[in-house]
Amino acid sequence: MPELATTPDDAQDLDGKDNIASAVAQLKERFKERCATSKALREQHGHTTTWLRNQPPDAVVFAETTEEVADIVRVCARFKVPVIPFGAGTSLEGHVNAPRGGVSIDLSRMNAVLEVNAADLDCRVQAGVTRKQLNSYIRDTGLFFPIDPGADATLGGMASTRASGTNAVRYGTMKDAVLGLTIVTADGRIIRTGGRAKKSSAGYDLTRLFVGAEGTLGVITELTLRLHGQPEAISGGVCPFPDVASACNAVSTTIQMGLPVARIELLDEVQIRGCNIYSKLGLAETPTLFLEFHGSEAGVREQSEMFSAIAEEFGGGPFEWATAPEDRTRLWTARHDAYWAGKALKPEAQIMVTDVCVPISSLADCVAATHEDIRAEGFLAPIVGHVGDGNFHVQVLVNIDDPEEKRRTEKFVERLSLRAIDMGGTCTGEHGVGQGKQKYMAREHGEALEVMRAVKHALDPDNVMNPGKILPQS
Amino acid sequence: MPELATTPDDAQDLDGKDNIASAVAQLKERFKERCATSKALREQHGHTTTWLRNQPPDAVVFAETTEEVADIVRVCARFKVPVIPFGAGTSLEGHVNAPRGGVSIDLSRMNAVLEVNAADLDCRVQAGVTRKQLNSYIRDTGLFFPIDPGADATLGGMASTRASGTNAVRYGTMKDAVLGLTIVTADGRIIRTGGRAKKSSAGYDLTRLFVGAEGTLGVITELTLRLHGQPEAISGGVCPFPDVASACNAVSTTIQMGLPVARIELLDEVQIRGCNIYSKLGLAETPTLFLEFHGSEAGVREQSEMFSAIAEEFGGGPFEWATAPEDRTRLWTARHDAYWAGKALKPEAQIMVTDVCVPISSLADCVAATHEDIRAEGFLAPIVGHVGDGNFHVQVLVNIDDPEEKRRTEKFVERLSLRAIDMGGTCTGEHGVGQGKQKYMAREHGEALEVMRAVKHALDPDNVMNPGKILPQS
């Protein structure tokens, strides 16, 4: 392998384009065919499941080790060329777009599970391991990794967007699941944060600073993750409600009573209609909760019975629950296919998907106001959500090529985001900021946004790490 | 009230002492008798439950609002005078000492519970509210705040040291309990981090950056905290073991099996002897686990029976458990008085207390090696710990005025800290770094320590916020 030049001087007199050309030339020399510049590959690496315009990087490098990532970052740092980490490309807010060009580091080949410490309920993985791959790998240990955003995302990407999903109400989010990280910093150093102890008071919590930073402070290359024992028993089922308010109120009561529900998901009547079409469920088209309980045999029975009583109190039910794995799998596969089920309602449309999160006492009001807004706009827009956390998603089915329809949808997302913030919530519970939610950062964080900028400037003074994400230009 | 001068210029030509005098003069003018400079009060504000030398501040200001804290910080920033936040003074590693002099901000009068949102299981408090005060305040809501470091610390102080305690194995640490913060930054701005949503992916996790920062990045003045429902049923009890290894192995198995134990505490035979003297318990003087289970009536019975079986497997038992509140209270009061029980073993001695945390699979080895070290040194040093997290404390009973005994104890703490780090653990699980653990930061964090320094420099360029804590001088 040729040595990398290390003097920073020769970058001085070049403009941006020349800098990118020089960096890509060095990377091509170093990584040969693993540094790709074909249009198709570049576009695929700017593409996400998003309504945002594709902004491809100038090159894609397939890294295989942390040291290689550090080499790539050093080259980019030297030429002040943007670095965009790429995992599975399943993010929803334009996180992998390259608005200023630059180099996409594809981490999908870094997909080794490095160690599993069953006795300590932890493991160490490379950033390109996906959540399903990890769960397959550890199945025989009796352990599982609970965080489940739906898509089979990479664990590095999930950490970077602070992902969560259906199990978060019981097991927390990536903020809770990550014990430690290996990071390549903006100047190409390799650092390790956190460790394998279950807790520590030894200094700043860098782990949680990098979790959710969307690659804007460094590239995550390895993760130490907390695992959980597979529950002895699982039960689950569906519970219809006459309206969204009564379903939300049942959720609130369930949480307030401390029922340790593992999943509690709301699908509104439009979403149920989509699921019936796409997943052939045959459910009544009314707001419905999908639930799952984890525990001992006696425990899950007790939880199911307690929930039945709560549902009845709010006019819902009957709660039909089953412990047979095949029934549960069918149900949760349908839940995870909600995106495609939404699309089945209007196959010619695109989906503009967004998420917000509010205090649970405001959930019913926030969903009601959003439904009212959907009706007023005449949108077809199913709602589905991790309502145990106060988090819900709206999928607006639109013709994205119609500028007026696109503009109206953007305005709708804006009203929804501000509504959630005004209720003491957040403009994104789990999708992240990326490009799509930047404009709400000032409203949500106020003066604290300047502290975020100070941290960004301290760790990435030249703004090479995934620029144009999270922090709006000031 | 007189206006505060805001031009930074007049601080330029003064040396450190003059700067402090000028700052204190301005604070006296602004805060009158609430700015105190008596020797006794200053010494009390440098004093902690610690073996470290008392280093009193130059003045103590009793703040009553966030705006007052901001005023104090602005005066100190202007004169580049250190600011040391003070809550209850229960920290163990010299966090409230003033090695470079400066102004101690006493937050104990900021002790209002500002709101309790029972439906959302959260509340907002001023930083000077203590954990016991909060729990008294919310008792009738059916909720409780679980984090329990033993001492009746202020919640601001607990957040600053990332405190935890006996319940952390079930309910997490302050990292998990804090939803949002109000912070006065080093330049006297007031920012709000986080919010009331149960989760968010909207930008950098500033909340967890300030939790555990020990006042070195800003002063916490208000906290939004997560509460939990009081469990329907609680059972608890004690379980003796023939040796520490078998007790540790029973703990490991309990955790691996996913038994949702609320407390699982190890007291070694020396600690039990102290508790028998101090709290008149009459327990067999052998390594013993104190346990507590939270859940439904059926759930806690099931958990207790499962634990009994595990204990028996490792040669422990009988596990004697009871659900009567008075029996449990007696037991946990004794556990919380472990510090004084240790002292009862050698009333003329001082206590040098330290804590480490290791992966649970290394717990038995780490305790065994530490016991061996204690024996070799001829120390009297009870061990007690939150072993469900792999966290344990050693209280060395020493004559701190004997330089040789002090030196030997310091060397012992050093060996213990490095042993924990070498096992993949941390030099402090819950006490924090303060002054006492700074020398282990480089060994534990490596290159990541430079990232911590960069964050510190970005948020506090003049090093006025609690200087001389966490980060060793480079």
From TrEMBL, chains A, B:
Cofactors = FAD
Residues in FAD-binding PCMH-type domain copies: 53-230
Q: What UniProt keywords apply to this chain's record, in alphabetical order?
A: FAD, Flavoprotein, Oxidoreductase, Transit peptide
- Signal peptide feature range: none
Please indicate if the UniProt record lists Thylakoid as a keyword: no
Top enzyme class: oxidoreductase
Q: What is its EC number?
A: 1.1.2.4
Pfam families recorded = FAD-oxidase_C (PF02913), FAD_binding_4 (PF01565)
Question: What is the recorded name of this protein?
Answer: D-lactate dehydrogenase (cytochrome)
Q: Which family does it belong to?
A: Belongs to the FAD-binding oxidoreductase/transferase type 4 family.
